[in-house]
Design brief:
Blueprint: H1 3-12, H2 28-58, H3 63-79, H4 81-91, H5 93-110, H6 117-129, H7 134-143, H8 151-179, H9 195-198, H10 203-220, H11 229-233, H12 243-248, H13 251-268, H14 274-281, H15 285-313, H16 315-325, H17 328-339, H18 342-369, H19 376-408, H20 416-438
Helix pairs in contact: 2-8, 2-10, 3-6, 3-19, 4-5, 4-7, 4-19, 5-6, 5-7, 5-10, 7-19, 8-15, 8-18, 13-19, 13-20, 14-17, 15-16, 15-18, 16-18, 16-20, 17-18, 17-20, 18-19, 19-20
């Protein structure tokens, strides 16, 4: 390979350790619109993740049906991210944000009218496959504003603002739902439940979320976009580079991908189980809301300071320690199930939120560190797509195993034996999460130190 060819490839594939032109929000208008969009996105999303799974249980979902709901939600929210990331790189971030927020608003308006779990599955597919296009576009938008060495701190700061204010929405929703004439879902001693009577209460969080997303659409229209999509699209080959090329030429990302994939599989096995445990331990919507409040407050702290710690000491350290720490969450849920004490669920949500905020911020920044200026949306979306496929498999596997166990043992969903199954599953998942977290010690220490000349240019 000649020197001319090497220089040509370097020009086509610029490394991202060239400093971008923007490192802060200098204009007051920019601050207001970015903060407003962050708050709207976090508040509306919190309502979805807090109450959607509980609505599935109240609609009578079996463990397997609940796993389908969880699986398609994770699959939809991630598997199409490569498309949305590519569109965000090609046409600009604001276009994708508008599409996403509009879809989220419409989906949440229809969600409370669901009559069975499959109705909710269909809505969830639309909600996540199109609505969650916000994820790669928003992270790429924020990535355009910051120097690489402070990127995690900047993204963490902006997202922490949104997460902090979302706490107030969850608190208010819990009070309003308890004040409504509709009862909290309960399982009675004779095995019956009041799930049909409690269904209308979900109009409160879902319609509220729809209104928030509508307001966020108008706020996001005033965002000042730093990424010049039309000029970048002129690069041609770089903007249309395929998955295989993007992965093969990037050793740090190639090493991260399978480790992250296995971790998401391990994490997702608990997601269809948690709602069953929560509704067996909590006794009011205020209690459910409080559980999520003590998750989101530490999460905002983790976003704010986890990003700073990652920039100073290395994102790998934050990602590894946080993901190992996730193992404590299923342990707390198992203890809460056995004792019937919601304090165990509340207690593990504190470190769980802290770990999630720090890890989520640093993994997003880490993937951006693996990208060039014109591929921010695509590298992060590739990571999300892979995560979605593995989360789909993990949630579905857990639900299938539980459902098969119940059928073979002729065990009723409302029986004590079902609680035993939940406990065993949670303990197995704890071990699985621990192993998956430890594997992160093998990821690349700092993608920004990756030497371009290490790329096997003969493949291209």
């Amino acid at each position: 390979m000649t020197e001319d060819t090497l220089e040509h490839i370097k020009e086509d594939f610029p490394r991202n350790h060239e400093k971008p032109r923007y490192d802060s929000i200098e204009n007051t208008k920019e601050k207001i619109t970015i903060w407003g969009t962050s708050i709207g996105w976090a508040a509306g999303r919190s309502s979805i993740f807090t109450f959607l799974s509980y609505f599935g249980v109240v609609l009578g979902a079996s463990p397997f049906e609940q796993s389908i709901l969880t699986s398609v939600r994770n699959l939809g929210s991630n598997v199409f991210q490569s498309i949305w990331g590519w569109l965000a790189d090609l046409k600009g971030r604001k276009l994708v944000l508008t599409i996403g927020f509009s879809t989220l608003a419409i989906s949440m308006l229809f969600a409370p009218f669901s009559q069975n779990p499959m109705d909710l599955v269909i809505i969830s597919i639309i909600l996540t496959s199109v609505g969650f296009s916000v994820i790669p576009a928003w992270n790429a938008f924020l990535g355009d504003y910051a120097f690489e060495r402070i990127r995690a701190s900047f993204i963490g700061k902006i997202n922490a603002i949104g997460t902090f204010f979302s706490v107030f929405l969850i608190f208010i929703l819990g009070i309003l739902m308890d004040a409504s004439p509709f009862p909290f879902p309960q399982i009675f001693t004779d095995g019956s439940n009041n799930y049909v009577l409690t269904r209308p209460v979900f109009f409160i969080p879902f319609i509220s979320s729809a209104i928030i997303f509508i307001l966020t659409i108008f706020i996001s229209l005033f965002l000042v976009e730093k990424y010049e999509a039309k000029k970048k699209a002129a690069i041609g080959e770089e903007i249309h580079t395929g998955w295989r090329t993007l992965i093969n030429r990037n050793e740090p990302f190639r090493r991260l991908l399978p480790i992250d994939a296995f971790f998401k599989f391990a994490m997702s096995t608990a997601w269809p189980i948690f709602p069953f445990v929560t509704l067996r331990v909590a006794d009011s919507w205020s209690m459910v809301s409080f559980m999520w409040i003590v998750f989101h407050l530490p999460r905002s702290f983790g976003q704010r300071y986890g990003g700073k710690f990652g920039d100073k000491y290395g994102k790998k350290i934050v990602i590894t320690l946080s993901r190992v720490g996730y193992a404590i969450v299923p342990l707390g849920y198992a203890l809460g199930l056995v004792t019937g004490n919601p304090l165990f669920l509340i207690g593990v949500n504190i470190p769980g939120g802290l770990f999630f905020g720090a890890e989520d911020t640093c993994i997003a920044a880490y993937s951006l560190d693996c990208s060039t200026e014109d591929t921010k949306g695509r590298y992060y979306s590739m990571l999300l797509t892979t995560e979605g496929l593995c989360a789909f498999a993990g949630s579905l596997s857990a639900g299938f195993i539980m459902d098969l166990w119940l059928r073979l043992g002729d065990i009723d969903y409302d029986s004590l034996e079902f609680n035993v199954i939940l406990f065993v599953m949670l303990m197995v998942i704890m071990i699985l999460r621990l192993v998956a977290g430890i594997l992160h010690k093998f990821i690349y220490s700092d993608p920004l130190d990756y030497n371009f000349n290490q790329i096997q240019l003969d493949k291209y």
